[in-house]
Amino acid sequence: MNIRWIFSLLLFSVSLYCTCYAQQQPTPVIHLTDLYHPHGDPDDHFDLACLYSLAAQGKIEIKGVGLDYPPNFRKGDPDLTAVAQLNYICGLDVPAFIGSAKLLQTKTDTLPGLAQQNATGINRIIRILRESDEPVAIIVVGSATDVAVAALREPELFRTKCAGIYLNSGATHQNEPDQLEFNVNLNPAAYAALFSLPCPLYWFPCWNVCEERVSGEWGSFYWLQHTDAFDGISVPLQTYFYRMFSQSKEPNWLRSLKTAPPEDKWNEILKDRRGMWSTASILMTAGLTVTRTGEIVSIDSAGDRALFRMEYVDVQCEDNGRLQWNLTDKPTNCRLLHVLDAEAYPAAMSKAVNALLRVLQ
């Protein structure tokens, strides 16, 4: 046999193995969320379930879930039991940690002298990045405080070990000049800091026009009908959502997963709908996107079927959270969500959410 042919075959085999191996490796992810019980907004529990679905499928590896320290206007505390329930359903042991109660005053504020109880989340983020063999994606669906401080304290670490920050905050257009989107208002200076960091920033504005609850070209918002989202989901997942919606005080959060919710109360829940924002960002951390007909596919294979894509953008953001942005043809550190078919977006995203939730048994 020709030695050159054998050598070529060996090279091809090694290349094929390396390609398959790379494709199988889940993306390391940190998820930062304002998840409370009683809940502030149910979308956060939906986001967490979608995240765990990707972990159950081996698409991502959840390195940690950071829960915001609750502001005074929230009646609920961080919902650690929701994380524990999904850990049990999926057979995982994802750690959870509580974020800082202190806020940045400027976009360069590193919160020096922070007490240990307020530095837990910051230190955990830094440690996860240091210890990871691969760059880590960070999803922000609540306050940006902990990730902003971590990055300001360790800019070189974020330059080399942060795959990207997936920021679900803000609005691309304002209907009132002084209006701030909810997540921005949690800590405007922290939000502003993220636009100047030395790592990729994927910006998913919550609103095309601030607080206008319709899907638009430059915002992530869509309406999710509960009947669409919950069609065919498992009893444990029904109970996970029922505990949240009912603001349950049931102490047996684990054993209750075996029992379906009361039928009459579950049927009432099915009649409702949910405002959603963060689904696109969660999928994209795993290299996935959604087609215009609602199939979840790899970003590389979507082509013209893609429902949304990311565009390069120049952003200038002040300490008060107010910003200006412009599209650009030149690569920048920041990319902006662009919904290519706003009319198809709600139905397609709803189908994708249901596909994710059906995984969790």
Helices and strands in order:
Layout (H helix, E strand, L loop, with lengths): L2 H22 L2 E7 L2 E2 L5 H14 L3 E8 L9 E2 L1 H11 L5 E3 L17 H16 L4 E5 L4 H9 L1 H7 E6 L3 E3 L8 H5 L1 H6 L7 E3 L3 E3 L12 E4 H4 L5 H11 L17 H8 L2 E4 L2 H7 L2 E3 L5 E3 H4 L5 E10 L5 E5 L6 E6 L5 H15 L2
Parallel strand pairs: 1-3, 1-6, 3-5, 6-7, 7-9, 8-10, 9-17
Antiparallel strand pairs: 2-4, 11-12, 13-14, 15-16, 15-17
In short:
The protein is an alpha/beta fold and 361 residues long. The protein has helices spanning 3-24, 43-56, 80-90, 116-131, 145-153, 155-161, 182-186, 188-193, 226-229, 235-245, 263-270, 279-285, 299-302, 345-359, and strands at residues 27-33, 36-37, 60-67, 77-78, 96-98, 136-140, 162-167, 171-173, 201-203, 207-209, 222-225, 273-276, 288-290, 296-298, 308-317, 323-327, 334-339.
How would you describe this protein?
With 361 residues, the protein is of the alpha/beta class. The chain is built from 14 helices and 17 strands. The strands form 5 sheets. It has a 9-stranded mixed sheet, sandwiched between helices. It has a two-stranded antiparallel sheet with strand order 2-4. β15 (308-317) and β16 form a beta hairpin. α3 packs antiparallel against α10 and α5 packs across α6 (155-161).
Keywords:
17 strands; 361 residues; 14 helices; alpha/beta; 39% helix; nine-stranded mixed beta sheet; single chain
